[in-house]
Amino acid sequence: MHTMRPPGALRLGCPVWAFEGWRGSLYTRAARREDFLPQYARVFGTVEGNATFYGLPSEATVRRWAAEAPPGFRFCFKFPRAVTHERQLVGAQRETDAFLRLMALLPERLGPLLLQLGPGFGPRHLDDLDRFLGALPRGLPCAVEVRHAGLYDDGPAEAAFDALLAAHGAARCNFDTADVFSAEASDASTAQAQSRKPRLPWRAAAPTGPAFVRFVGRNRIEASESALARWVGPVGEWLASGREVYFFTHTPDDAAAPHLARRFHSMLRAPLPALPPLAPFPGEAEPPVTVQGGLFD
Prior knowledge:
Blueprint: E1 9-14, H1 33-43, E2 46-49, H2 51-54, H3 59-68, E3 74-77, H4 81-86, H5 93-103, E4 113-116, H6 126-135, E5 142-145, H7 156-168, E6 171-176, H8 178-181, H9 188-196, E7 211-216, H10 225-229, H11 232-240, E8 244-250, H12 257-269, H13 282-285
Parallel strand pairs: 1-2, 1-8, 2-3, 4-5, 5-6, 6-7, 7-8
Helix pairs in contact: 6-7
């Protein structure tokens, strides 16, 4: 029996692509840094871009990224912290313009830009968010992540936030950190993740635009199965309704992030068997290393 492909588009990815520890699994054993993005993009359709939060790359670097990624690939770069955290969206026109000039070099490869707001950005700042989103170029894709408890009140403040996003056509970023906080901090990377990441109420909200999820799992992907399974229903519904879905998998040390993404993809294919298969990891598709026996073996 023929099964129709879900009308929506799943864009699955990781928080970074330049991770040397993925050699021999996601990447080939001899992969150079300039090979990372092309090999990453053979498997995944999107990537977060955390580097722009800390500093802006050169135009030449952004042009190189545009050339290395295939046409269907989408970069989701993060607004600089000078805009979101230091100035909290007020009086940040110069920094915003500099960032957007670089993003304009990726016109066909630009996914929602992530506006990650700090824990102090609460309900009383929604007017600032309204003005900031209203001043962005028309049609610029954007996802907004909030961390203030007041914007998770399941009441008027959260409703106002969602309505604001809908008015501007911006996506809501669902940042799921519950799984990493459910683990005992038995290693340094998990302890660091628990100290730096917010503990937020679980949400599967997509008031407008694409659905956008950042999931933080554990370093052992088997331990994240039940938390990851929670997303199969919402993502399946979004895809079935024709929504575009961006889903990013994080782990505390990032080493297992591609494997966690692949596991989620396989979980989705159970209810959605027509979902296109994920390509093999280039490093796993390599022939195994053969060791020639010694003369006296």
